[in-house]
Design goal:
Layout (H helix, E strand, L loop, with lengths): L3 H20 L3 H16 L3 E7 L6 E8 L3 H19 L6 E3 L2 E7 L4 E8 L8 H34 L5 E6 L4 E4 L1 H7 L3 H4 L13 H12 L4 E9 L5 E12 L5 E10 L1 H19 L3 E7 L8 E6 L1 H7 L25 H9 L3 E7 L9 E9 L3 E8 L1 H48 L3 H27 L8 E4 H7 L1 H8 L3 E6 L5 E4 L1 H17 L5 E12 L19 E10 L6 H4 L19 H11 L3 E6 L5 E8 L9 H4 L6 H5 L4 E5 L3 H13 L3 E5 L2 H10 L6 E5 L7 H11 L5 E5 L16 E4 L4 H14 L1
Parallel strand pairs: 17-19, 23-24, 23-25, 25-26, 26-27
Antiparallel strand pairs: 1-2, 1-5, 3-4, 4-5, 6-7, 6-10, 8-9, 9-10, 11-12, 11-15, 13-14, 14-15, 16-18, 19-20, 20-22, 21-22
Helix pairs in contact: 1-2, 1-4, 2-4, 11-12, 11-20, 12-17, 15-17
Length: 787
Amino acid sequence: MITDGVDRKYSHALSEFAALTDRLLDCETLVNSAVQAIVYHVGADRCHIYRRRSDSHVVEVAATAGDDDTTTGDELHRRATHTLELYEKGLTQPLLGDSTVSLVIEGDSAPFGVCVVHSDSAAALTDDDIGFVQSIVGILSGAFRRAHAVRDKARLRALVASADDAIVEVTTDGRIFNWNEAAETLFGYTRQAIVGRSVTTLVDEHWTSETAAVLTAACAGRTIGSRDTVVRRSDGAPIDIMIRATPIILPDGRITAATLTMRDVRQRRVADKQLQMHTDILAQMPAAVMVWQLDDLDDSTSLRLVFANREANVATGCSLEDCIGIRFSDVACSPAAISDVEPYASVARTGIPEDLGEHPSSHQPNARRWYHVQALPLPDRCVGVVFQDVTERRALTEQLRHAQRMEVVGRLAGGVAHDFNNILTVVNGYSELLRLKLGKQPSALSDLSEIERAAESARDLTRQLLAFGRRQTLRPAPLDLTALVKSARGMLTRLIGEEVQLCVIGSEPVTVVADSGQIEQVLLNLAVNARDAMPAGGRLFLESSIVYIDHDSDDRQSPSDPCAHMEPGPYGMLTVSDTGLGMDAPTLARIFEPFFTTKEAGKGTGLGLSTVHGIVKQSGGQIAVKSEPGEGTTFKIYLPTAKAGAIVSKAKLTKPALTPKARLGPSRTVLLVEDDDSLRYLLRRILASSGFHVLEAEGPVEALSMLGHFRGTVDLLVSDVVMPSQSGPELASRITLKYPGLPVVYMSGYVPDLAGHRKLPTAAKFLQKPFTRDELLDVVREALQAA
């Protein structure tokens, strides 16, 4: 390595020599200047530069400087030949001897020759001297490369000026020494950046061995035809190319390099893939596709079939391959009932796509399907007609619309039931107060009983409305469906009459989580519905079982089937089927609508099946129905199963016993908030007559204002949940700021989870309207006792 001192000693000489090589490209002048500079600055006795002949290791003197000693000259010649031989074997370092150093002068594609420096003095050449010689040789090699580059570039430009292919020239050991502008464009490397680097720089790692084999074959004298491979750009992006290799043979027959011609085939492959992809898409599309070609632009009837995919065969029910080439009017099969050829011909003429809307199938009268038809322009006056099966989508859309209608009516029914519950609470309350006053007046008590029976009937009707709207109060608990069906057998037998035979199937326990009273109501409604569907008698089957819903099985439900939306797992299933008249599809689509009935006027309310639907949905289940005219009807009800250890002990359901003090109702202050005037007056009378001091308010604003002036203590808040300006829970949260720990009793005609603007507190006392006088007093006393 040249030291700083040597750098200062030789730097000027090296700079002058480098400047000379920049100005001159003449080989003879450069080698003469090199030997003279070495002898002069190093102080060597002689310096010879030998040029390699074309016959490999044979060298001849190209330039000398210093003393001319024949004996020494022969020795230097032998050393030059030996140095070149070692270089060819891979030894590229300077060869050092006694007062002698020899280095190979590299050319462009092969060594130019050898530089040998000798000193007669006993002192060996120093490291600085050797470093200077290496620098001169390096500058000389660079000059030769530049000279070769100028020559080769001119030659290459002349040869490949019109070529679009990338041309890369590499040495036998794989080093790149030349390439054209197309190669720069293809790979993204400049010539200066790539020359001298291995050709493997350009090759994808997975294709290195194959590229090496191609180069080896070319350097062995063989021309390699087109092969596909993958190379990489300077940014790492892969490029699909076609490569050819040709050996570069010198006039003496030696092969010193090879030319690699590379053609970018990405666009061709993309085009091939796109063509194949389009063909595959058409063939494998889930929609039916038919391609027609218009032979005569002026004649719409010249439209003929040129392609039909597999789904088109399925949709038409015939083999369309036999119809290829046939005119539109002669092709009897089509997925949709479109007989007019003009829309298709118009698309082929104008190139403007057209949406032809939805049409029913033309060959499936018993199982009619619907298709959305689109006509799309294709090259060569062709039109592609896509028939997208929308049967399931239409069914789902109709199901969604039906569900939305049911939801709207359910909300309306729930709201009506809520308001009606307020009225019934007033009627029942005043009936109870009147009964206390009448004493023993048989005639009046009889009339009062009729009023109470009418109120109870109205209460049952509101329960049905709430059940339909899924707004009733449920008390879900573990329930054995098998036991429930068996216990209800006697009641159902009397209900359906002797003409209908009741068959109960299933003996194994089927434990679900549901409200037993509501499931009994479901059984009752379905049994009545089945009885009315069998006017001449028949059989009614009740079956309980455990089923497993698995959407990954081969037997998948249709998207319109309610079971398709259930979570996979076990369910308790209650099946109710009859051998009655059955229903057609239009009737089946409406059976759960409220007030829809097929019975005569006055024979049914139309709430039976809608109540069943509401109870099942509110219970977290699903209901499916299957029916055909003359084939009877089957209802399948799926309910969530009970988890292990979910049995609730009766002790937990028992109300806490009231202390005598609580039953007596001591004089305590109750804040009553209810926006219905009639109900508020009734509740005030009941509470006041039971010994409570009542503060009444018609709404949250009045209640808060009243408490602002009240100087006493409030022991209990009794509040409606849904009120115009503020909900009951919101009012309670504000009042408890002044009265921490204040017990609260909520009232509503809705179920707790749907009442107000948020759910009630977990431990809240709740009264479902309509309620009786005793139910009100019991809950009030329980709340006071718990506080």
